[in-house]
Amino acid sequence: MEYASVIETVFRENKLNLTPAQGEMFSHLTEEMLRVNASMNLTAITDPLQIAVKHYADCAFMANLPPQGATVADIGAGAGFPTLPLGILRPDLKITAVDSTDKRMRYVEATADLLGLEHVSVLTARAEELGKKASMRESFDFVTARAVAALNVLCELCLPLVRVGGTFCALKAQGGREELAAAEQAADLLGGKVTEISEFSLVDPSNTTAEDALRRVLIIIEKISPTPEKYPRRYARIQSDPL
Description:
alpha/beta, Rossmann fold, about 40% helix, about 20% strand
């Protein structure tokens, strides 16, 4: 099935740039994701237009944020969001998808190979364990996470991986501002500083009354000082006693 025209419409309505070649790649991604989804739980969204709105356009709004040629880690990448859309839209980046579920990482790796995204790699691991490894700690220019955990928890999982001078970007639904109020102290303790909050609403061409449900928040936290060695803690401790 040809999905490119649906994807092009969604990107145009959301005022997002998309080349014909990128549209074809998103079409192939949709076909592959729906094929695999029949036997593996990748997404509850199976309508192609809704996939384009809630997965592709949602991720595309942050595609211009990583610096040219940046090393990027997508924490809790799951079915490949934002890894795969970011890989399609930003071939200059070096992207590492990180998730503890090996089956999903194998899917992301195979799909990246199918799409020719040689700049995308995967790592089956827990973020809090990576943050303790000398080779990974404070090594990425840009770290992102989407629909993984509350922001104060995400800060402890992600900021230890960001180099000083780099950026952590959390992709949040409309409750992101409320989460931020509880997370600013955590960000500060971990060496981060909130520098930008960007709010937008996704446009669903099939339902123009859905704006409230499609509000999104991008929270940008700059890494201004090294994370103290004691962080990140074990995940059970992060959950039970968040910063």
